[in-house]
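Table 4 source record.
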Amino acid sequence: MIVETRNLAKEYNGIKALNGVSFSVKEGEIFGFLGLNGAGKKTTIKILMTLLMPTSGEVYVNGYNVVEKAMKVMESIGLVHQRNVLKNDMSAREILIFHVMLYSIEDRELEEKVERALKFADFESRVDEKVRNFSGGMKRRLETVKVFMHSSKIVYRDEPSLSSDSTLRSTKFNKI
């Protein structure tokens, strides 16, 4: 299993946010959380990403215990934020280069990965244009593509259909 929780619980000042949550996700599987506000979806994701520690239970991501091997877990994951976190004064190419450099990808691979991602995301004609000129859907597409440029085993996508165009929603990202 790529993600597994057993009896996951989280309490805040005696209030149970999660109580006995157990599930597993196989590698290559798409898994989503649905539920009302306050149901514990974000709390669970924060624990899976090592941003919060569980009160009790066991949580494994990519085979690593989130409490004991937090750094290994963090190396395994990518996140597409709900809100745009792109720098508006940068171009699509600059953003992808910056993102790839954060993950210490070798120089010889850098340009190839960036060009492949730009083509895949259909940004070839606008690679050097500032992001501030992009539509909300284009920004979301760039946010999504950048997370697939490093070797994440798991990608978390907050509000996955928000501002996404239909071509992006139906695309398989393992081609980047």
